[in-house]
Q: What sequence folds into this?
């Protein structure tokens, strides 16, 4: 019985002194934001809802919100690319009453008016954040939602 107690204590001590897995696993993060350049509040959805996608996010005029995230490990030596957002089935924009105003899908990205999934429509930033203990490198893409975007037919 005493051996089991010593073994349990040894396991606890080992776990408490082990390295932080966050420091070992994450190094690069890609974040996609959408900025509301209209005069009305909007509700944004990234579909499907996953750990890396925001759902039913209200964005006020002239404000930005995070819509999608993808990250990669330093160990893999991979940096996030814009194409990560293409895993979404769609991005939709509604008014506060729930009325669908605009919907973008990757399969419609050839249509000029439905080009939210085209990288050249996004602003790109890269930044190093030293305030967090891991010193991650962040890659940002920002899309400006305009009144023109909301005038496009939905389907």
A:
């Amino acid at each position: 019985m005493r051996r089991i107690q010593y073994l349990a204590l040894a396991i606890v001590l080992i776990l408490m002194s082990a390295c932080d897995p966050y420091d070992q696993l994450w190094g690069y993060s890609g974040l996609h934001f959408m900025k509301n350049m209209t005069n009305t509040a909007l509700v944004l959805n990234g579909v499907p809802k996953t750990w890396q996608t925001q759902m039913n996010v209200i964005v006020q005029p002239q404000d930005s919100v995070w819509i999608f995230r993808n990250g990669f490990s330093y160990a893999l030596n991979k940096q996030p690319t814009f194409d990560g957002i293409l895993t979404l089935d769609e991005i939709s924009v509604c008014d506060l009453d729930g009325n669908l105003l605009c919907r973008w899908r990757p399969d419609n990205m050839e249509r000029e008016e439905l080009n939210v999934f085209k990288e050249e429509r996004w602003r790109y930033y890269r930044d190093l954040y030293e305030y967090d203990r891991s010193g991650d490198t962040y890659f940002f893409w920002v899309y400006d939602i305009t009144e023109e975007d909301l005038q496009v037919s939905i389907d």
The chain has one domain: 22-150. The two ends are 69 Å apart (CA to CA). Residues 6 and 25 are 31 Å apart (CA to CA).
